[in-house]
Amino acid sequence: MNLASRIRCGLLLAGIFGLLAGEAVADAAKKNYRLHCMGCHQSDGTGSPENGIPSMRDEVGHFLQAPDGRAYLSQVPGTLNTPLSDGETAELLNWVMANIGRSSTPADFKPYTADDVRAYRATVPQDIPGMRVRLLKQIEDIQLGSAR
Questions:
Q1: For residues 55 and 100, what is the distance between their CA atoms, to the nearest angstrom?
Q2: Which of 23, 37, 114, 145 is buried deepest, with most CB atoms within 10 A?
Q3: Domains in the chain, start-ordered, CATH in brackets?
Q4: Of 2 and 21, more confident
Q5: pTM for this one?
Q6: DSSP codes joined into one string, the chain
């Protein structure tokens, strides 16, 4: 096998391993959703609004429209208090945006990183429920403004 063929073969194998690694990250994030989120937010993200557990299904991505919404998703009690590392939490948030947030997740969504989660967790607001109310109002104003 000549050098060019070896390089092509190496690149092909690297691509295959990269795909498998990406699948492993997605599988781990899905497992972490089941272990740490599904008990309240349900398997499909619909939550239990009548019991104070908001639906995330096709909605959670809207928080990314508000200036503090990205941080907020790392600061809600379930995310903040999970035993997951910052990296695992970032992977989980990215999985949620793709699989639960779906159509609500902006096309230009910038995936969370471990550094993002670490920084957001270090600056938790005093009033998380109040922050949610403020963010929902900001999102409503943004959506009404863009509809005009």
A1: 10
A2: 37
A3: 25-147 (1.10.760.10)
A4: 2
A5: 0.79
A6: --HHHHHHHHHHHHHHHHHHHHHHHHHHHHHHHHHHTHHHH-TTS--BGGGTB---TTTGGGGGGSTTHHHHHHHSHHHHT-SS-HHHHHHHHHHHIIIIIGGGS-TT-----HHHHHHHHTS--S-HHHHHHHHHHHHHHHHHHHH-
